[in-house]
Amino acid sequence: MKSKHPSFELYEAHRPGLLSYARQLSGDAVLAEDIVQDAWLLFARQSAGTIVSPGSYLRTIVRNLLMTRARRAKIERMSEADFDVVTATVADEAVSPEETAAARETMMRVMDALDALPARQAEAIRLYHFEGMKLREVAAVLGVSIPMVHGLITEGLAICNRIRKEGQ
């Protein structure tokens, strides 16, 4: 006779509760049975001795499997849908030419304001926002403290933000 997997007793003890839980989440008894069996297969791969709370762990596996299956079903429904029907319901996110022109004008005003700032302040903003440097890196480049860089950037951005708002 073949011996049982060491964690099978844990699974058997929790199976009724897992079936009930899976049925509640899915609303389908057949799917719940499949999910609980899949959960057992995943659970059996683990060392039962390393799992602190097997019941909670099994419930988490069941929930995750159901969520994965629901996502997959949604994707399958979308892929089976008629392209024209799907695209007709998608909002047009294109920006109008007027909005593009207004954004460019505002950006030019902000860049002009940035150029009008003191050199060290403008450089701090450029390094931080346009070059993606961290505050400590900007501080090292400018030879100042991190709080000083933070202050330079905060004050400079307040000025640029005020100019941006005036253009709206």
Secondary structure topology:
Blueprint lengths: L7 H19 L2 H16 L9 H27 L2 H7 L7 H20 L2 H12 L4 H8 L3 H21 L2
Helix pairs in contact: 1-2, 1-3, 2-3, 5-8, 6-7, 6-8, 7-8
Question: Could you characterize what this model shows?
Answer:
It comes from Acetobacter sicerae. Residues 10-74 form the RNA polymerase sigma-70 region domain. Residues 108-157 form the RNA polymerase sigma factor 70 region 4 type domain. The structure is a single chain. The chain is mainly α and 168 residues long. 77% of the residues lie in helices and 0% in strands. The longest helix is centred in the middle third of the chain and has 27 residues, at 54-80. It is elongated, with a radius of gyration of 29 Å. The N and C termini lie far apart (80 Å). It is built from 8 helices and no strands. The protein has helices spanning 8-26, 29-44, 54-80, 83-89, 97-116, 119-130, 135-142, 146-166.
Concise summary:
Belongs to the sigma-70 factor family. ECF subfamily. With 168 residues, the protein is an all-alpha fold.
